[in-house]
Specification:
Helices cover about 65% and strands about 0% of the residues. It is built from 18 helices and two strands. The protein starts with a helix and ends with a helix.
């Protein structure tokens, strides 16, 4: 398949996104800009709220976004959309290998990519950083991108133990040191916000939005919709979500790098307190890798019930028997291949 269908979908989606009324266009990007702009006036990142949407990321994310405030808003929205499209293409090239154009088409058609484009989110950039780090040739800098991604948004932290369990222990240490160094830099630059985030805001899940809505496909979201009280819900998430994550990390030891990343990414959807649609790109890649029409339908069609959560659990904890675009399936690779990959410390 050529690239024309994927690029056509990308152009149409981008046009629809940028044609929305100014107040409804890339609203999450507006939150980033508003919170960071407040820093110039001595305000806290975490005091800013646009509608019902506050700034929820670690302080380091605010530092990263400071340069954005110098770009005219309309121009930034166009550039952000183009960068998001480019990240999808890059992700497809990494994940699709010889079938990159087909992978890109499915990604552009999927709900997670559409949601990311519509809201002007960072999720695809972070997923690309994780993929690029895991799939790059081993080297001294491996782990840096995962550490940076986790410093911007905590969810990618789950990929650090994945590196360790796959034998990439130097990379796991590099990722950890990078994450801590970014946090320390933010603490020096924004001491008040850093203290507030790590002592208070990081535990306040309720400020993340309407977390009882169907858009939150985490295990925590499903239990909230069932009406479980907070104390019991936290225990269940810790036990069941933690078990799913441990199974995924165990499975990832002998999977190919791409498949391992997808499996652990699916576990992050289950375990995270909030897993919005734009967080779920790992589930699209899983459906592609497994060659699952049901998985593709779940990730392209509007959400129905907790189907995406169920798909995430299947991907993370159940061995898939499907095939993939070239050699990216979710089955374990030959043990000699896995050992060779994992032994390069």
């Amino acid at each position: 398949m050529g690239w024309h269908p994927a690029l056509l979908v990308a152009v149409v989606t981008g046009y629809v996104v940028l044609s929305r009324p100014p107040g409804r266009r890339l609203s999450d990007l507006d939150v980033y800009l508003g919170a960071v702009e407040g820093l110039r006036h001595g305000e806290s990142l975490y005091d800013f709220i646009l509608g019902n949407a506050p700034f929820t990321y670690p302080p380091f994310a605010g530092l990263v976004m400071v340069p954005l405030t110098g770009v005219p808003k309309t121009g930034l929205q166009v550039l952000w959309t183009l960068a998001t499209v480019a990240s999808v293409v890059a992700m497809a090239r990494l994940a699709g290998r010889g079938d990159a154009a087909a992978v890109a088409l499915v990604l552009f058609l999927s709900a997670p990519v559409s949601s990311d484009l519509r809201y002007g989110q960072v999720s695809l950039f972070l997923a690309l950083m994780v993929l690029g780090d895991v799939l790059r040739p081993p080297g001294r800098a491996q782990g840096v991108l995962i550490g940076l991604a986790a410093a911007i948004k905590l969810t990618p932290l789950i990929f650090i133990p994945m590196l360790w369990m796959r034998g990439r222990r130097r990379a796991a240490v590099v990722a950890t040191v990078t994450f801590v160094a970014c946090g320390a830099l933010a603490a020096v630059a924004l001491p008040g916000d850093s203290w507030r985030y790590w002592t208070t805001e990081v535990r306040d899940v309720d400020r993340l939005g309407f977390i009882d809505s169907a858009g939150n496909q985490s295990l925590n979201g499903a239990l909230i919709r069932l009406g479980l009280p907070s104390a019991g819900r936290e225990v269940i998430v810790l036990l069941i979500g933690g078990a799913v994550a441990l199974i995924a990390l165990h499975r990832a030891r002998k999977l190919e790098p791409l498949a391992a990343t997808v499996v652990v990414g699916a576990a992050s959807v289950v375990l995270s307190p909030v897993s919005w649609t734009h967080h779920q790109v790992w589930l699209v890649l899983a459906a592609i890798c497994a060659g699952s029409p049901i998985g593709l339908a779940v990730m392209i069609l509007p959400v129905w019930g907790d189907t995406r959560l169920l798909w995430a659990i299947v991907v993370a904890a159940v061995r898939s028997s499907g095939s993939s675009p070239r050699s990216a399936n979710l089955e374990p690779v030959d043990s000699s291949t896995a050992d060779k990959w994992g032994s390069q410390t």
